[in-house]
Amino acid sequence: MNKGVLKMKELVEIIAKALVDNPDAVVVNEIAGEQSVIIELKVAPEDMGKVIGKQGRIARAIRTVVKAAATKMNKRVVVEII
């Protein structure tokens, strides 16, 4: 596994756990392809609004931070909140 991918997964996990009321329910999976990586973020249903934010602002901010980290590795990263 690529070290940078692991760091992005940890980054998403740290951000999500800081935002939610139930940090134990936060699960982050990553699916690595050749040129892209999908990071799936699962949270408790009652915490969904906290990671998405008003009009998706927090979700967009998480994606922006991860995309900035991914740019260094020439990878395309997609963060899905499910």
From TrEMBL:
Origin: domain of life: Bacteria
Family per similarity comment: Belongs to the KhpA RNA-binding protein family.
GO MF annotations in UniProt: RNA binding
Function: A probable RNA chaperone. Forms a complex with KhpB which binds to cellular RNA and controls its expression. Plays a role in peptidoglycan (PG) homeostasis and cell length regulation.
Protein name, UniProt field: RNA-binding protein KhpA
InterPro entries: KH_dom-like_a/b, KH_sf_prok-type, KhpA
Keywords: Cell shape, Cell wall biogenesis/degradation, Chaperone, Cytoplasm, RNA-binding
Record PROSITE patterns: KH_TYPE_1
Origin organism lineage: Bacteria, Bacillati, Bacillota, Clostridia, Eubacteriales
Quaternary assembly: Forms a complex with KhpB.
Annotated CDD domains: KH-II_YlqC-like
Primary site of residence: cytoplasm
BP-aspect Gene Ontology terms: cell wall organization; peptidoglycan biosynthetic process; regulation of cell shape
Locations listed in the record: Cytoplasm
Positions in coiled-coil regions: none
Cellular compartments per GO CC: cytoplasm
